[in-house]
Amino acid sequence: MPVTIRFATAPDAPTVHRFIAALAAYEREPDAVEVTVGTLASQLGSPRPPFECLLAEQDGAAVGFALFFQTYSTWRGRVGVHLEDLFVLPEHRRRGVGSALLRRLARLTRERHGARLEWAVLDWNAPAIAFYRRFGAEPLGEWTTWRLTDAGLRALADRDA
Predict the structure, then answer these.
(1) Residue 106 CB partners (closer than 8 Å, separation 6+)
(2) Contacts of 101 (CB under 8 A, 6+ apart)
(3) How far apart are CA 18 and CA 26, in angstroms?
(4) pLDDT at position 160, please?
(5) C-alpha torsion angle, residues 12, 13, 19, 25 (rounded to 10)
(6) How confident is the model at residue 143 (pLDDT cuts 50, 70, 90)?
(7) Which residues are catalytic?
(8) What CATH fold (topology level) applies to the domain 4-158?
């Protein structure tokens, strides 16, 4: 079956939300999803959405997605793309859907004169690691992702000098 890739719009928010929830379950964090369909619809329909999303469809049904946003490389002086989530429904894997999404995202990055396409992969996700290596992607071994959320973010923001 041929794969069609298109940009998600506000009416696609329920589908995007379904994929986000399915990915969270796959990543062993089923209760971590806080975003609502309404929030996604509002963001997708805003003049400057905080993210973009590609939907992969087969026979008119959404079977996967790639959610991403623009980054900037100070060293290269050019924009880039950060792939936040890539997910294909289990029953549609190994049929070229993930490859089609990643290829479209690579093309989009080049069309926008992007310097790089980056993403993170959980260290236990061997199928994803193997998938990305097939395209020549390499992990940045010397870099570690750091994060502040909730209480830590509040504490730092409220801290006096």
Answers:
(1) 117
(2) 5, 54, 56, 64, 65, 66, 86, 88
(3) 12
(4) 83
(5) -160
(6) confident
(7) 132
(8) Aminopeptidase (3.40.630)
What is the strand order of the sheet 117-119 is part of?
A: 4-7, 52-58, 61-73, 78-88, 117-119
- Considering the chain, what percentage of its residues have pLDDT values greater than 90? 93
Rounded to whole angstroms, how far apart are CA atoms 155 and 161? Answer: 12
Contact status, residue 1 vs residue 95, Cβ threshold 8 Å: yes
What is the rounded distance in angstroms from the CA atom of residue 1 to the CA atom of residue 160? 59
Q: At what angle do helices 13-26 and 37-44 cross, to 10 degrees?
A: 120
At 155, which helix (H) or strand (E)? Answer: helix 150-158
Q: CB-side exposure of 123: number of CA atoms within 13 Å?
A: 4
Provide mean pLDDT across the span 127-134.
94
Residue extents of the structural domains in the chain:
4-158
Tell if the pTM clears 0.90, that is, is over it. Answer: yes
User: Which residues have CB under 8 Å from 120's CB, separation 6+?
Assistant: 145
User: What are the residues facing 56 on neighbouring strands?
Assistant: 5, 64
Contacts of 27 (CB under 8 A, 6+ apart): 122, 125
